[in-house]
Amino acid sequence: MFLRLLKTADPSPFEHAVLPHLDAAYNLARWLTGNERDAEDVTQEASLRAFKFFSTFRGGDARAWLLTIVRRTAWTWLRRNRPHEETVEFDEELHGGEDLAPNPAVTLARVGDVAAVRQALETLPTLFREALVLRELEGCSYKEIADIAGVPVGTVMSRLARARRLLQTTLSTQPDGGRP
Q: H-helix or E-strand containing 65?
C-alpha cells in the first residue's frame, strides 16, 4: 500500500532518490527472506524507514543507502522469524581450497540452466547469498557491498569466494551437472 502511494504522489526529493531503486530493494529482500510475500513486507518496512529517516541522507549513493536499510530490515526480520538461519558455520572442506568457479556467470554458462542456478543460490546460507545477490545480480562493487553490509572489503571478498565455491559444489552435486 505504502509503495503504491509513493508511486502516485507528487515527486519529492525522496521519490527521486529512492523510487528508482525499489526493484533492487525488493530483489535483495526476496533473496534474503526466500519468498515474495516476506520480501514485500521487508521492502515496505524498509521504505517506510527510509522515508522516516530521509532527512539523515546526506546525498551520495541513494541506492547503497536504501539497500543498507533493506539489509538491516531483512536481518532484523530474519532474527525475529528465522533465528536458525543467522549462523554460518565455517567448514574448511567446503570453504577452503581453490576457487573452482570464478563467478556465477561462468557457472551459469557451463551449466546452462538458470533454474538450477537459482535453486542452488537459494540453498546458500543467507550471508553468502546476500553477497552474491549484491555483486552478481545488483552489480554492486566490493566497496558498495562493504558499505551496505557494514563489513570490511576483505570480508566481502571472502564471503563472495565462499559463496561461489558453495554454489559450484551445489551445482556439481546435482544430477546432470545442475540440471533438474
A: helix 62-81
